[in-house]
Amino acid sequence: MTAPGLTTNQAPFIEEARTHGEVYIRQPYELYSESNQDTWRRLYARILPRWKKYAHPKFMQGVNNLALDPHNVPKLDDVNKFLAPLSGFTAKAVSGYVPAYIFFDCLRTRAFPTTITIRDGKKIDYLPEPDIFHDVAGHVPMHTDKVFADVLVRFGEVAKAAAERAAAMTDEREKVRHIESVIKAMARFFWFTVEFGLMKRGPGSSDLCVYGSGLLSSYGEIEHCLTSSDVQRYPFQLEWVINQYFEIDHYQPLLFIVDGFEHLYDEVHRLEEWIRDGKCDNVSPGEPLVNEADLKSFLNATKATAAVH
Hints:
This protein has 13 helices and six strands. The protein has helices at 12-19, 34-54, 57-66, 76-87, 100-108, 132-143, 146-167, 172-195, 213-216, 221-227, 238-241, 261-276, 292-308, and strands spanning 90-94, 111-115, 198-200, 208-210, 232-235, 254-258. The strands form two sheets. Strands 4-3-6-5 form a four-stranded mixed beta sheet. It has a two-stranded parallel sheet with strand order 1-2.
């Protein structure tokens, strides 16, 4: 009998976990089919030359430090043996989408929610949702860098600050409006940095490289983002980023450049200050839409914060 595999949207193991409300799960490595392993091999082999050409040097250092196997889907336990001593982060297997506050709070505790399924080998170029190649090959190598890891922790602290401010609000409608706006601001910031960020190769350099995981896990877009005249590339500007909507189903036409990881850390800190000062209470409408699960996760956090205080 052929193993059912762990193909995205086709994995009974994941469906069963979701049915039982399990967010954090084990990685059932024995369920990966030969087709799943072949998909990983193909994805890794074709993107490696583009990583070497376009990725930030810290990313390539992270790939080496993690000893990622180009031939087999990684075991998260093995990844964590290399990752945890470097930055304190671990990859934590999840059954699917993690609501916004829970996701950011995981980052605060140095855990990265990690998808364990892998895309269908018949359509490897685009996937509208994360898979293990996006999460482990695209995200996790950057987590080996201490400064970048601290940036992710700061995102979690920003979410906590937003919940604390909302908890002090007595008008429920105002609280919901505040939270929806902050979720948009944080999602846009995360999108244009951690997912689709560009960075200067070094101090004073005009050369650009890629550090965003959405770009690093896309064979086509990692080159397109740096070479195409169709892409607008601008220095990072917080007020623009948090008010800029994005769409996920095509190559990004607008990207932002940070000077380095310290610059990125400082901007996350500034985002928290803006949230505490109410400057993110009314960001522009548009994508991403705030779903019920994300809103509920923040509202629950405000209740927990209020109870503590």
